[in-house]
Design goal:
The chain is an alpha/beta fold. It folds into two domains: about 5-140 and about 305-330, Rossmann fold; about 150-290, Isocitrate/Isopropylmalate dehydrogenase-like (Rossmann fold, 3-Layer(aba) Sandwich), CATH 3.40.50.10750. It has helices at about 5-10, 25-40, 50-60, 80-90, 95-100, 105-115, 130-140, 180-200, 220-235, 245-250, 250-255, 275-290, 315-330; strands at about 20, 45, 70, 120-125, 150-155, 165-170, 205, 240-245, 270, 290-300, 305. The chain has a six-stranded mixed β-sheet with strand order 8-7-9-6-5-10, sandwiched between helices. The longest helix is centred in the middle third of the chain and has 19 residues, at about 180-200.
Length: about 325
């Protein structure tokens, strides 16, 4: 069976992008770099010490032929990146000395490569926290001009399911307690991510423990407020709520609970009320449903910088490389 990631890989191959991997001492990352290069998904740039990287690869039998290795200690870009980082952040307290130190950090250096057009995207997080990955991204790359926040989602791929094969779960990785406006923005961003990555029009369910007024509370009102904001800002988006998960995905339940809804029973994008529910939801589906979870994938950044789960395997990293490459291609248009 052709998977969603295999489809994304094939699309990424049509417009090869340069993807930076700064975690050069993680064997999983080095294997992923080799795999992505072999599959011709992207041109890979690894940040680190070439001798140390080669020693690891010889020991682990990893082939890095065709992969560029850049060391901040002796790169031709280092000095200009120092100056640029200082200029970008001096109003926030950045000093020239601090910029000189930060640029030696592989993640900061990699993000600067993306910022300055030396690379098209970055994937990190196998051995670093989400904060370590996204802090420099937010400081340096920043948000898209029309984005009101940066959010994160997972592509959930169900290989043996009575329902759809792939869904977007948002926000499942970044915004802990979204405001009504932020939740609406997450829905709008997710509709665009669905079109790009799943290659289908988004049908968005604003999730809750209530369906169409079956319960009343301030939290449900908040979800409805977000729904109304989306409808006002983007009347072209197919969205409905509030919906319980069963009403969102099961056509029989949808007929009983939300018979007039144009989304119920066929949703492919789930917008969770908060990060607690989003994170719990994706991990329940991943573990009990034996689903593949790709992410957290960021949306709303000016250029694609994507996080990884620290429990990822090399194949997961290759999938996120392909997703990042496809996001970078979308920036061309």
């Amino acid at each position: 069976m052709e998977t969603i990631i295999s489809k994304i890989k094939e699309r990424a191959k049509k417009n090869i992008k340069r993807i930076v991997l700064p975690e050069s001492e993680d064997i999983r990352v080095l294997r992923a770099a080799s795999m992505a290069t072999s599959e011709k998904i992207a041109n890979i740039i690894i940040i680190g010490d070439k001798d140390k990287i080669n020693d690891i690869c010889i020991k682990e039998n990893i082939d890095l032929n065709g992969i560029e290795i850049v060391n901040p200690e002796n790169s031709e870009y280092t000095k200009s990146f120092e100056n640029r980082l200082y200029e970008l952040r001096k109003e926030k307290g950045m000093t020239e000395e601090k910029a000189r130190e930060l640029i030696k950090d592989y993640i900061y250096f990699g993000v600067m490569m993306v910022k300055e057009g030396k690379a098209d995207g970055l994937v990190c997080g196998a051995s670093h926290s989400t904060a370590d990955t996204l802090r420099p991204a937010l400081q340096i790359v920043k948000t898209k001009k029309d984005a009101k926040c940066v959010s994160a989602f997972f592509i959930m791929e169900l290989l043996n399911s009575d329902y759809k094969n792939a869904y977007i779960f948002a926000d499942s990785g970044l915004v802990e307690f979204p405001t009504d406006e932020q939740r609406a923005e997450i829905a709008i961003q997710s509709s665009e991510s669905c079109k790009l990555l799943l290659d289908e029009e988004a049908k968005i369910a604003m999730l809750s423990y209530s369906t169409m007024g079956s319960a009343k509370s301030d939290s449900i009102d908040s979800v409805r407020n977000s729904l109304n904001i989306v409808r006002q800002r983007r009347p072209d988006i197919m969205i409905d709520g509030e919906l319980q998960v069963d009403a969102a995905v099961d056509k029989k339940v949808a007929k009983l609970k939300a018979p007039k809804s144009t989304v119920a029973g066929q949703a492919n994008v789930f917008i969770f009320p908060d990060l607690n529910s989003g994170n719990i939801g994706y991990k329940l589906v991943q573990r009990f449903g034996k689903a593949n979870a790709y992410g957290p994938i960021t949306q709303g950044l000016a250029k694609p910088i994507n996080d990884l789960s620290r429990g990822c395997i090399s194949e997961d990293i290759v999938g996120v490389i392909a997703i990042t490459a496809l996001q970078a291609s979308a920036n061309d248009s």
